[in-house]
Specification:
By secondary structure, this protein is an alpha/beta fold. The protein contains 9 helices and 8 strands. An 8-stranded parallel sheet has the order 1-2-3-4-5-6-7-8. α3 packs parallel to α4. It is globular. The chain starts with a strand and ends with a helix.
Length: 261
């Protein structure tokens, strides 16, 4: 069985003491590819170094919406430069909107829209972070589709929206990725969404080191090996086998990010 963790942050300091052991565990769990996301350009060097160190790792470059105040022309140029010269860059992001922790809506929207333009220019998908902002993200993507005549490709990562909101983004040709939150007992809305996503739009992730899934929820650090627990829960919610979920999510990740396994 092969699994792909489509969203990790293993460049964080919490992984530095034992990254080789962490890697051994993800290999033992059947994780054959990983997509490392990015929060801001200061991470570019460390993420690129990890991708060069681990052949199974690809990565994204971008600016997180909660860092939107750091957006400037230099940021855009750095994203374009690295994405254009390193074949291991498979996406732009994570970008998007977060109105749960910040209310600088115009700054966030400008950085988001500019990264959509970069992704389109480079023919790369986007990794979208969306928290308390589903209506606004939908509006941005609908506007983009109207202007360009086609949807930008991408994934709604660590998805927490309702089934209705899920359908919005499926109709915009987005993939929907579920993290450890889908295993939480109280996450009924997320579980309902995981049950209704079309099979050809389904992805899984850990978003590690955050959001460790049940039965590892009490641990301080999530890690890529635990994506198996996400897959198991999604399989249960959809009344499918674990191997079927592994197969479809692996194929979807390959299709979206241009990966091979």
């Amino acid at each position: 069985m092969q699994l792909i963790d489509t969203h990790v942050h293993v460049n964080f300091d919490v992984f530095q003491p034992d990254i080789e052991a962490v890697r051994s565990r993800w290999q033992e769990a059947g994780v054959v590819r990983l997509v490392h996301s990015c929060v801001e350009p200061s991470e570019f060097k460390s993420i690129q170094s990890l991708a060069n160190r681990f052949p199974e790792m690809s990565f994204a470059v971008g600016l997180h919406p909660l860092d939107a105040e750091k957006w400037n022309q230099q940021t855009a140029e750095e994203i374009v430069s690295l994405a254009g010269c390193d074949s291991k860059v498979v996406a732009i992001g994570e970008t998007g909107l977060d109105f749960y922790k910040a209310d600088n809506k115009e700054q966030q929207r400008h950085a988001f829209e500019t990264q959509l333009a970069i992704a389109t220019e480079l023919n790369l998908p986007v990794i979208i972070h969306c928290r308390n902002a589903a209506t606004e993200v939908r509006e941005v993507l609908q506007k983009w589709k109207q202007l360009k005549g086609e949807s930008v490709r991408g994934v709604m990562h660590c998805w927490g929206g309702s089934p209705e909101e899920t359908q919005w983004f499926v109709e915009l040709d987005f993939y929907i990725s579920f993290s450890g939150t889908v295993t939480f007992k109280s996450a009924k809305q997320i579980q309902e969404s995981a049950a209704c996503v079309p099979s050809d739009r389904l992805l899984i992730e850990t978003d590690c080191p955050f959001l460790a899934p049940v039965p590892k929820r009490g641990e301080r650090r999530n890690e890529p090996a635990y994506v198996r627990y996400v897959a198991e829960q999604v399989a249960k919610l959809r009344s499918e086998s674990l191997s079927a979920i592994a197969d479809v999510t692996t194929q979807n990740a390959c299709d979206l990010f241009g990966l091979t396994v």
